[in-house]
Amino acid sequence: MGAKKSETGQATAPSADEDFGVLLGWDSSPAGQRIMLLMQSARKTPDQPDDVRDFRYFLTREQAVQLGNYLYGLAGETAPKRKSRGFLEKLIGD
Questions:
Q1: Alpha-helical runs (H) found in 6-76
Q2: How far apart are CA 94 and CA 89, in angstroms?
Q3: Alpha helices by DSSP H, 21-86
Q4: Residue-wise pLDDT tens for the chain (94 aa)?
Q5: In whole angstroms, what is the distance from residue 62 CA to residue 33 CA?
Q6: What pLDDT is recorded for position 83?
Q7: Sheet harboring 53-59: ordered strands across?
């Protein structure tokens, strides 16, 4: 997926039938076996609450990890490495 590109390989501007906006914020929460991702966006500087649109996505854990890794890559960053648990955490099972 990603941005649409012209025949020359350059990104093209969204057409009138495409939905786009600026990301204002996001939140996530568990939803059973899935993760609910709430993203808020606006097409212009929000003057009224109606100018902010909410989009809810339900992702599997694998999709969430893939999305996170993809975004890290786009940003030129690497995902943080998980620390190995210490002796006490292993003993307690935390």
A1: 61-74
A2: 5
A3: 61-74
A4: 555 666 777 777 767 667 788 999 999 999 999 999 999 999 888 899 889 999 999 999 999 999 999 999 999 998 888 777 778 777 887 5
A5: 11
A6: 78
A7: 22-31, 34-42, 53-59
pTM for the full model? 0.65
CA angle 28, 29, 34 (to 5 degrees): 105
Return the DSSP state at 74. Answer: H
CA-closest candidate to residue 28, choices 66, 55, 1, 62:
55
> End-to-end alpha-carbon separation of the chain, Å?
38
C-alpha to C-alpha distance for 47 and 56, rounded to whole angstroms: 22
**What is the model's pLDDT at position 53?**
93
Amino acid, single-letter form, for residue 20: F
Q: Please give the structure tokens belonging to residue 15.
A: 């057409």
DSSP E strands, 7-75:
22-31, 34-42, 53-59
Q: Which of 2, 36, 37, 41 has its CA nearest to residue 19? A: 41
